[in-house]
Q: What sequence folds into this?
């Protein structure tokens, strides 16, 4: 899992369909080879409300289990007194309908809901994957991002940018930022 921060915005809005997770019968694809060492996990992974509504948990869903494992292998998760995103190195779907799997980490002392976030994602060479893509993480589908927790977010990759996404196998060659961030305090 990458621990550097990246920002990006776009005119896309995350739909409930785009934030739905693959069932455990579908394939998870790993776009990196991680050699990180395991450390004690301080920040728990919490499934999205939509995942819980589909009875997907850390105990029964292979995607959530893989995300949690990668979090445990990371040296540091989040930024103290801030909100951060981390790319997991994973994605869902097939060509033309891909989602990059990130986690959003709340290390602030307030619970957040109805989050509007704008994200940029590119290679260090400047090849754009997401250009200021806008996502709306509603309480109805996403849930509440509690303090000192992480939740998965599934970001649609435009088909025309998939080649840029696959142009590197080294996660250190990827850059992502939060360009804008707004939320309701819960």
A:
């Amino acid at each position: 899992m990458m621990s550097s921060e990246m920002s990006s915005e776009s005119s896309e809005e995350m739909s409930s369909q785009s934030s739905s997770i693959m069932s455990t019968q579908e394939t998870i694809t790993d776009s990196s080879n991680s050699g990180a060492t395991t450390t004690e996990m301080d920040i728990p992974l919490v499934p999205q409300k939509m995942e819980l509504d589909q009875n997907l948990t850390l105990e029964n869903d292979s995607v959530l289990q893989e995300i949690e494992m990668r979090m445990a292998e990371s040296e540091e998760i989040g930024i103290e007194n801030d909100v951060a995103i981390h790319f997991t190195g994973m994605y869902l779907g097939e060509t033309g309908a891909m989602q990059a799997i990130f986690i959003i980490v709340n290390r602030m002392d307030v619970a957040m809901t109805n989050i509007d976030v704008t994200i940029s994602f590119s290679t260090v060479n400047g090849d754009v994957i997401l250009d200021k893509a806008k996502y709306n993480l509603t309480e109805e589908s996403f849930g509440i991002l509690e303090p000192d927790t992480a939740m998965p977010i599934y970001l649609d990759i435009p088909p025309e940018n998939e080649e840029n996404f696959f142009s590197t196998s080294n996660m250190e060659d990827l850059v992502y930022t939060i360009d804008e961030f707004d939320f309701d305090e819960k």
